[in-house]
Structure formats: C-alpha cells, structure tokens
Amino acid sequence: MKVYDKPIDILILNEKTEQYEPFLRLHAHVNRASETERLSGGSERDTVTLTFEVRYCAAVADISYNTENYRIGYRSMMFNVAAADDYMEGHKTLKLTGVKL
Which of 17, 29, 73, 97 has the fewest CB atoms within 10 Å around its CB? Predict the structure, then answer.
C-alpha cells in the first residue's frame, strides 16, 4: 500500500500576471523517476525528474489536460509538470511527472 505522506504544492499560472500562484496543497507518494546530466552548449546541467502520485479529486482533474498551466512545489524546489497520467481514466490516482526547473 502506498503512503501519501509528502506535502506538495500545486501552483497555477495566472494568465493576467503571467505568474504562478498557489492553487492546492496535497500529499503525494514521491519517487525519483530519473536523474540525467546533459551537455548544452558546452555546459553541464543536472536534470532531476520525480513522479508525484496524488489521490484523484475534482480539483486536480484539469491538470491532466493542461499540464503547461501548472507547477509543483516540493522541498523548496520547483518542477514543471511534464506529464499527467490518470491510469485508464479510473479517477483513483493522478501520477504527475515533474522536471526540476
């Protein structure tokens, strides 16, 4: 049984100010998806990707179809939502893939 014990903040883009604002505070099951080092223009950069699994609720339904409007705050770090998976649209959990900014 998964434990949803890590607090995360979901931020939403305010289209008028073009700033991300607090939207939801949830508890998630967090797992490291990958960590890679990329060379871009001769520089090195670490990219951390985490998977955040949250219990499904009406408030997170829009994230599945509009990932670009949301970010995840976790342990003083910000993550872009790269993907959202509501497995077989069962509305039990929502798995968010976050890439560290």
Answer: 17
State the CB neighbour count (10 A cutoff) for residue 91: 15
Over the stretch 37-66, which tens digit does the pLDDT of each residue have?
A: 655 565 556 688 999 999 999 999 899 889
Which amino acid is residue 65, in one-letter code? Y
Query: Cα(33)–Cα(2) distance, rounded to whole angstroms?
Result: 16
pLDDT value of position 41: 60
H or E stretch at 8: strand 6-14
Specify the DSSP class assigned to residue 92: S
Instruction: Tell how far CA 70 is from the center of its chain.
Output: 8
Number of other CB atoms surrounding residue 75 within 10 Å: 9
> Residue 17 corresponds to which tokens in the numbers above?
């100010």
Q: How far apart are CA 26 and CA 41, in angstroms?
A: 38
Reported as a pLDDT band with limits 50, 70 and 90, residue 83 is very high
Both tokens of residue 15? 């289209």
